[in-house]
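Listing S7. Sequence submitted for prediction.
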Amino acid sequence: MAKVYYIKRSRERDGSSSVITGTLVQLVENSSYTLDCGASYSHEKGNAKINRKPKTIASLISNLNNAVNNSAADGYAGITYKLLATAEVV
C-alpha cells in the first residue's frame, strides 16, 4: 500500500494556490528542479542547506519551503508549501 499526499502550494502575491498530489517518490521527482535550484544557492550566507532526496513528507515540505526562499532575490519568495491530507491507496 502506498500513501498519496496532497500538498498545497500558495502564492502570497496574488493569492493563488494549487494542489500537488502523488506518492513521496513522485513528489520528490516532480519537485527536483525546485530542490536543485534551492541547493545551488545554499552556499550563500544566511541560506539553508537543501536535501535533494528527503525521506519523509515533512522533510520534503521543509526543504521545498527553504528551496524557494534560497532562490529568491531578497530571501523570501512569498511561496509556501503545506501538507493538506494523506490517503492510503490499495
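Caption to Listing S7: primary sequence and predicted C-alpha cells for the chain studied. The chain has three helices and three strands. Helices lie at 24-30, 32-40, 57-71.
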